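Continued from yesterday's entry.
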Amino acid sequence: MKTQVTAFGFEVLVTYLLPGILATMAVLVWHGIDIEGAKKLVAWAQDAQFLSSFLLLASFTLFGALIASLQAFIEANFLDWLTSRMLDKDQTQFNVEWNHYINNLPENSYISRVALYFQFETRIGLASLILGFTLFKVSLIHAGVFILLGLVFYWIGSLHHRELGAFRESFYNEHA
């Protein structure tokens, strides 16, 4: 996917920072933060100086990068396999089409948006699932809501992954 320089900030926000915020919340819940501790953290963030703001942003970014890495592993080891089966391709042909597509990537804003949505949906879905499972310590209802949201986001992302696979197949058939 060729990225516009102007879209870089938006891509970082939706594919790293937002999942990172959810993952940071999961870590806080896992470690047993109570309502008073959460209020203190919010007050600290509101009165933050440069160093504390930087540390908070770094935490979100780190956890967002961890979510992105986990998602990349899942994509390479599960979603690609599943998508190749849904498109009636063997894994070798699927990878040949992927490599051909990447080496000859067309400039197409629609495909770029679908790829961005795929990244957003699967990473938010994964972060929501992690948060949902940690929320079992606090509330079954909240845990269920986040797990359901996570599954829905991840499912929609997997549909976009399949759509991107079909784009690659079509591009390969036209240009091979």
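--- second protein ---
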Amino acid sequence: VGGSNINNNKTYDQVAIAPNTIQNKVLKVGAFDFDNGMFKDKWKELTKQYDHKNATLKFSQFMKHHISDHRPIWLQLDIS
């Protein structure tokens, strides 16, 4: 999936699929980027006040305090 944390640089959350089970049914996988969708204005506010590194730090602190620093991961299966 790539990064599933707010900074997009760690993969904490994973889904394990045993070999020879449904692995050929997996169509897509990803992480739900809720922070970008729901808190875009907060990010814009911070990038006006701080450089990118510090804005990222402040945004991560904000997200950890209010929601989570982990994005939910998902997978799409072919169930036909």
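The longest strand covers residues 26-31. The radius of gyration is 16 Å. Will compare against the first tomorrow.
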